[in-house]
Amino acid sequence: MKPIGFALLALFLAATPRANAASTGEYLARAGDCVVCHSQSDGAPYAGGLKMNTPVGPIFTTNITPDKETGIGLYTFEEFDRALRLGVARDGHRLYPAMPYPSYAKITTEDSRALYDYFMNDVKPVRQVNTPNAIAAPWNARWPLAIWNVLGAGTPFRADPDHDDLWNRGAYLVQGLAHCGACHTPRGWLFQEKGFDEQSGAFLAGATLDNWSAPNLRGDLNSGLGRWTEAEIAEYLKTGRNRHGRAFGAMRDVVTFSTTTLDDDDIAAMAKYLKSLPPSIDRHQSVWVYDARTRDALSKGGAGAAGYARQCASCHGLDGLGGADMPPLAGNAAILDPDPTSLINIVLNGAPPPDEANANSGDSMPQFRSFLRDRDIADIVTFIRSAWGNRAPAATEARVGELRRDTTAGAERTVIRQMR
After folding, report:
1. Between β-strands 212-214 and 207-209, what pairing exists: parallel, antiparallel or unpaired?
2. Cβ-proximal residues to 4 (8 Å cutoff; 6+ apart), any chain
3. CA-to-CA distance for 253 and 273, rounded, in angstroms?
């Protein structure tokens, strides 16, 4: 897609011939990361079947290829648009909000049309019957979703005249197509997102889901993006790494199949918008002070320090500053996340480097679940979160045990290589 001002986007899409609309639709599908959720690791693109864990039980993503029997081949544009932006399927049943229609509500009609054209004309039909969801009664009832939508549904995007076109383009992508809030915004007691745009101090303030903690993307100095520049945010989105750290968990697939494929102008727009967000209002604030008094953390001794010296220091350094392709641990926002879930998961199960085309792949983080006890891992994680000036809550042996039970070593998946 050519770099253009956000104010001209709707006019451009409306006036573009269908051959160009198809390429626009593919670009938008990548921006929406559709392939990652609607594909299995070894399956056909967009054929569905991926298991997704939710607070009320597992669901399986659906076939969105244009197959007329098992996919969306019979959908009219109006039916497609209603499913995309309102969460209502062709036969009238309501979709579970694991489908991020509260975010997609912000997509323009022109972009929705381009997506429809792409899926109907350029995606290969695949006959694959959808897997039934495994949510137990009474949580499997769909009618309460009509009530839920009163609290949980999003609203159409409206450009802010107080900001320029680049900021508004970034807001449109972050809030809508990229649906960043679906993972990074905390949920209320009905599992609704607590905010959908910068008007809410909870929007993108961080959330825990599916055994990962999606980090704070606001301006918090330590546990958010407060120390990151716009250029560093853009570098992370484009390559999956920067001097502060690298992508892990589901973010690896977001980088691989979505953000790394976006135009530099769109990456810059997302970075500008994210950097404009003030600190959150309702998250525990971690602290980082790195100075001469905090560098020599290992001298404090203790089981955690000893475990770190044996297992981690050769890559991440005795001073916690990392090296080569190893990210720093001192002052790392992921380490300072008030929720230690992601750090525990990484130590337990390992984490491959970001799979992207624009940076050296580096070394993988190994898994330690095979030869470290829950108590050992809790001690090491707690040490990391309290060393080199880091001041974040401790990890508990019980939480490590929960994640050991609910996760698998090397479970981070990389989907559909042919989509690159």
Report:
1. antiparallel
2. 12
3. 22
Amino acid symbol at 52: M
Q: Sign of the C-alpha dihedral, residues 134, 101, 33, 240? A: negative
For residue 57, the enclosing domain spans 1-123
How far, in whole angstroms, is CA 182 from its chain's centroid?
8
Of the three residues 75, 105, 123, the one that is the final residue of a domain is 123
Query: Number of structural domains, the chain?
Result: 2
Single-letter residue type at 257? F
pLDDT surpassing 70 at residue 2: no
In a domain, 14, yes or no: yes
* C-alpha span between 101 and 86 (Å, rounded): 6
The single-letter code of the amino acid at 42 is D
- The one-character DSSP state at 3 is -
**For residue 259, is it within any domain?**
no
Q: Higher pLDDT residue, 16 or 233?
A: 233
Q: Which residues of 395-414 are buried (b: 16+ CB within 10 A; e: fewer)?
A: bbeebbeebbeebeeeebee
pLDDT range class, residue 392, cuts 50, 70, 90: very high
Task: Report the percent of the chain where pLDDT is more than 90.
Answer: 62
Rounded Cα–Cα distance for residues 53 and 278 (Å): 31
Which CATH number covers residue 329?
A: 1.10.760.10
| Spatial CA neighbour of 262 closest among 37, 45, 1 | 1
Q: Helix, strand or coil for residue 60? A: strand
- Kindly report whether the global pTM for this prediction surpasses the value 0.85: yes
pLDDT at 96: 85
Alpha-carbon distances, residue 7 vs 59, 96, 168, 170, 188 (angstroms): 38, 33, 9, 12, 34
The CATH number for 24's domain is 1.10.760
Residue 12 located in a structural domain: yes
Residue 190 belongs to a domain: no
Average pLDDT over residues 262-289: 85
For residue 167, the surrounding DSSP H or E stretch is helix 165-172
Report the run of H or E that residue 18 belongs to, with start and end: helix 18-31
- For 43, residues 6+ apart whose C-beta sits below 8 A from its C-beta are 49, 128, 416
Query: Does the pLDDT value for residue 285 go beyond 70?
Result: no
Select from 123, 157, 176 the last residue of a domain: 123
For residues 304 and 383, give the distance between their C-alpha atoms in angstroms, rounded to a whole number. Answer: 5
